[in-house]
Amino acid sequence: MRLSQPHVLIVEDEPAQREVLAYNLEAEGYRTSAAENGEEALMLVAEDKPDVIVLDWMLPNVSGIEVCRQLKMKSETRDVPIIMLSARSEEGDRVRGLETGADDYVVKPYAVSELMARVRTQLRRVRPSAMGQVLMFEDIQLDAETHRVSRAGKPLKLGPTEFRLLSTFMEKPGRVWSREALLDRVWGRDIYVDTRTVDVHVGRLRKVLTQHGHPDPLRTVRGSGYALG
Ligand code: CA
Question: pTM above the 0.85 mark?
């Protein structure tokens, strides 16, 4: 049983650099996709939203700064962390990079280990369960590393799908997940599953969470999907 891998998009016009990045990110256990220019990057993000973007500043046509600005303007992509790569080391550029909304800024040439650490930092923020963190919501505790779940101190037995569902909910309490978004995150994009399957598994998850008379922490949002809290 594993949680869906964190997805990192690499935007870099130099093939050799793209390859080094993809190789190292995949060695860390992430799924990668790559774009060689800004237009392609914007298209890929719209198609398959990554968890983190490593974005080169110097790109042909649409610059990295412009890509960053556009992504941070849209509500659907604003929350995707962007790590900007730049050959420029002047302080002014760093400030400009961060002002555009980049979440972090790394100067080339960089040590790969340093960049991997920065990627991990961003992923821990946006995908805590996939990074093995312990998640808490009210009296529910989920340990993504040991796969243990408890409520009010009592262990709960969850099937693999219910476990992935609960970790998804617990990463973003309050967020309303559509059935399609849950399918993508919990079952994966390549598997065909009917959206009604989501309802079945949410039902099972509810049953386990509410045993011993605990209140139901999941909310059905009519016409939209489900939310925790
Ligand atoms: Ca470049």
Answer: no
